[in-house]
Amino acid sequence: MVAFGMAERLTRKDVDRIATLARLELGEAEKDLFVRQLTEVLAYADQIQAIDTTEVPPTSHVLSRILVDRADEPQPGLTNAEALANAPDPSPQTGLFRVPRVIG
Amino acid sequence: MSDVSFKTARDIRDAVSSGRVSAVEVVQAALSRIESTNPALNAFLSVAGERALDRAKVVDRDQRTAPLAGVPVAIKDNICTSGIATTAASRMLKDFVPPYDATVVKRLEAAGAIVMGKTNCDEFAMGSSTENSAFGPSKNPWNPEYISGGSSGGSAVAVAAGMTPLALGSDTGGSIRQPASLCGIAGLKPTYGRVSRYGLIAFASSLDQIGPFARTAYDAALALSVLAGPDPHDATAAREAVPDYTAALTGDIRGLRLGVPRRMLEQGVDESVRGCFYHALEVFRSRGAELVDIDLPHAKYAIATYYIVATAEASSNLARFDGVRYGYRAPGVRNVKEMYEQSRSQGFGPEVKRRIMLGTYVLSAGYYDAYYLKAQRVRTLVRRDYEQAFRKVDAVVMPTSPTPAFKIGERVEDPLQLYLTDIFTVSANLAGLPALSVPCGLTPNRLPIGLQMTGKPFDEPMLLRIGDSYERDTNWWKEGPG
Predict the structure, then answer these.
(1) Nearest alpha carbon to residue B404 among B452, B453, B441
(2) Cβ of A54 under 8 Å from any chain B Cβ?
(3) Is the pLDDT of residue B2 over 80?
(4) Which of A101, B5, B218, B444 is deepest in the core (most CB within 10 A)?
């Protein structure tokens, strides 16, 4: 666990790690730019560390109730052709999305 | 009524309903206005002319008494339209044609409105100027060297330049209100949950809300009456009763208490904005409202909180763009990992990548508690500030944007500086509250300035009443870019 009140400078290694997590392939210039810009934004964001939030519950959404309950009944959905219509590499014969090699 | 440019939705609807003009004539006039003005302003990314004319024929035949009969609307390009490309102004979705309509589009069409096309915005609604669009910025009709505001800039320009009387935008941190302010029109962000988000391309799901741009508070009320309501496709769409919002526009604001967070105006607010704002307060006072000083002690942390919460949610929402089911896929990839990484890297623009990176960081192991969880706790404090204020006042008034529009290109190098301009708008999203911007003045070189009212949850009638009463006493809403 990293301590509060960080405002430390982001490193190239951090940017590499985040890019890997986010599945982004960044160029060298882009990495340098993000090191600087993300450091600036995080330094600004760090001001919230100074606020006492003891006993303050987090807000993940503002609704007083979420209406998750409904009858579990089948509804019409997209046809296979509609679902494939925007795919970069559809396989209409099999009705599947085709992707490159997954293993190896 | 041959010239429908700059007419209100109400006037057009009345003219169509009474048979003084046909919906087809209205649509033809709107199409010709779009054709003559759009090339210089880049408000529309696509115009659905034939579809609009076909719809107009249906309205003339079957829907002449509908609440928005024959009213042309522009739809922000992050809202799905069946059969019309929906790009979110991103290379990622350049060729995406949705197989379904967003609920708001269905509701508009059921009410007789006519979709004219799709409007430009910041890529995936991330930005405050439309400069992050993959298809170039929209220009401010008051001065095309200036930004339109954003992210829903194209929709604001469409209305401000007389192309359509109504438009839809989405507002995650000010993306309806700020461009409305900078383009001199009305823009309403409804209460979170008031309008279904089904078919809105998600940016930050706990903050996003769809709402209307209009020339007047009355037209915004008319539109909201059509847009609001529950939706089986969106579990967060509220079941609260939907009133006729136009019925709230009595012009009577006597005895209403308007909260003014004066401390927020002390720094970083342009002199012309401050001047117009204080003048607007006098207009309210002379109509019988009472001004009450209030404090929103955590408002100064709202931007920091917002950019943690919004980017965290964005990084999660945008994980779906992986080159498999829809959207861009990079050519020449050897395996799935390369497909993910290269498709995302080539498909997303710089601001989207920046926010995904930031969001991924604040959610990552070791930083989640310090940033994301902490920000959610501060979000609670921001909400409580408003709850406290609403014990004393009926609505909170402040400027919409601390500055008028700036020049295109002026701030692209410094994302943080651009984020800071959201100071007056983000807290309504964090707290889920409704907020309305109406025009309240012009700078000496004729750039519009907006006035914002924020209300209690589901108290849009109050905001619209205040906005409408302000319009009755002022002529700013009648000003056009000329």
Answers:
(1) B441
(2) no
(3) no
(4) B218
